[in-house]
Design goal:
It comes from Campylobacter geochelonis. Residues 176-401 form the CN hydrolase domain. It holds the Pfam family ApoNAT_membrane. It is an enzyme of class 2 (transferase). The protein has helices at residues 4-8, 14-32, 36-51, 67-85, 91-101, 127-142, 147-157, 182-185, 191-207, 228-237, 286-296, 354-369, 391-400; strands at 173-175, 212-214, 220-223, 242-251, 254-263, 266-271, 311-314, 317-323, 339-345, 372-378, 383-385. By secondary structure, the chain is of the alpha/beta class. The protein is globular, with a radius of gyration of 23 Å. The two termini are 32 Å apart. The model has no long low-confidence stretch (mean pLDDT 95).
């Protein structure tokens, strides 16, 4: 029940979207009165339903046989977290601990956020919305004469009552979408072919009159700052359109996952500042980190990172840069930027529900900060994600069409 939103929103149906948060509310109602074992296996299956796809990347390192173990690992980690929440029988304590789960990041991974269950439907997807729902459930349990009234008041207080007007960049923007398999993307044999394909996509966008062209994360699988000829080609094309592309960078013995901005014949580089745990960095003590890097990544070192997020300007518009995992982190939305341009490679995990969960997380932060997110992706669809609309407005607009 609690996890339904990840799957029902795949259908892009307004009725299912309306129903989704009520199923989650019923799930929380049952959980509040559960025993410790039920808390554990609720967390266990939430961990699996939300994050089973993380293990899919093992295929590309030759460790597909470990997929069941990694799925089991996620189940056990979140099972134990939920067990802690359910250790006390007092429902108020349980409610508080469940709320705090969204702000506890095991291994610096923040994708378990229970406020996300309110992204679809009528409610405000934030701390206020979740607290109001929990207060309504507690009222239903503890009030003797006014159970339904208490629940109703909680639901009313959780409703979304305003919506942010979305902002859009004032120039024609092309979000390039690619569907390159990970089997070929990182294979040096296909490097030249992929570079040619990316350059052709840029040429097509320029021909179609786009003034800002955004390519996905690692659209060029090379250390772009060490490729002067390729850089020069992109600089020349940038006299016609501004180009943002993902690529690797290498400097002073350090490797970075970066965005490169080509504009009017010049180039700027923005390095990623929040790395993917167990993908780009191992968030464990050095002696364990070295052993895991040796075992899974042929001894490669962790990526290095920038000291903070990066902002840049396109057509006098200030834009916050985000590379994949960064677009789902609260730090990226500090000071509520008007625009975030994000690039991702979801090819590691597709086909799965990962792109949809990522989209819901982006929608959550876009709503919370009034930000419009331009998202260029490999492996799933590229799109513009705006703050959440009122469900009633969406419903009325459906009939107007």
């Amino acid at each position: 029940m609690i996890s339904n939103f990840i799957f029902l929103t795949l259908f892009d149906n307004l009725i299912l979207e309306f129903i989704s948060p009520f199923l989650a509310i019923y799930g929380f109602y049952k959980l509040f009165d559960a025993n410790r074992f039920e808390f554990f296996h609720t967390g266990f299956f939430i961990g699996i339903l939300w994050f089973y796809w993380v293990s899919f990347s093992l295929v590309y390192y030759g460790f597909a046989f470990l997929i069941p173990l990694e799925i089991l690992f996620f189940g056990l980690v979140y099972g134990l977290i939920f067990l802690v929440c359910g250790w006390w029988k007092n429902k108020f304590i349980r409610a508080i601990l469940l709320i705090l789960i969204s702000y506890f990041y095991p291994f610096n991974f923040n994708w378990l956020n229970l406020e996300l269950v309110l992204v679809p439907g009528l409610f405000e997807p934030n701390l206020r919305g979740l607290c109001a729902i929990f207060a309504g459930i507690l009222a239903f349990y503890y009030l003797k004469k006014f159970k339904l009234l208490g629940l109703f008041v909680g639901v009313i207080l959780a409703l979304q009552i305003t919506q942010e007007k979305p902002n859009f960049l004032p120039l024609k923007t092309k979000l390039i979408n690619t569907q390159i398999s990970q089997y070929t993307k990182w294979n040096p044999k296909f490097s030249k072919q992929h570079i040619i394909e990316a350059l052709n996509l840029i040429d097509e966008a320029i021909k179609d009159g786009y003034k800002f062209i955004v390519l996905p994360e690692n659209a060029f699988v090379t250390h772009l700052n060490l490729e002067p000829n390729l850089e020069q080609i992109l600089k020349e094309k940038s006299h016609f359109s501004t180009i943002l592309t993902g690529a690797l960078a290498y400097e002073n013995g350090r490797q970075y996952n970066s965005s490169f901005l080509f504009s009017k014949g010049s180039v700027q580089r923005f390095d990623k500042f929040i790395l993917v745990p167990f993908g780009e960095e191992i968030p464990l003590p050095n002696f364990i980190k070295k052993a895991l890097n040796l075992l899974f990544f042929n001894g490669a070192k962790d990526f290095d990172k920038a000291s903070s997020f990066s902002d840049y300007k396109v057509d006098n518009q200030v834009i916050r840069n985000a590379i994949c995992y960064e677009v789902t982190r609260s730090e990226t939305y500090k000071n509520s930027p008007k625009f975030v341009v994000a690039i991702s490679n979801n090819g590691w995990f597709t086909p799965s529900t990962e792109p949809n969960l990522q989209r819901l997380l982006i929608k959550y932060y876009a709503t919370k900060h009034g930000t419009t997110v331009y998202h260029s992706v490999n492996g799933s669809k590229s799109e513009i994600i705006t703050p959440k609309e009122l469900w009633v407005v969406k419903f009325i607009n459906l009939f107007k069409k």
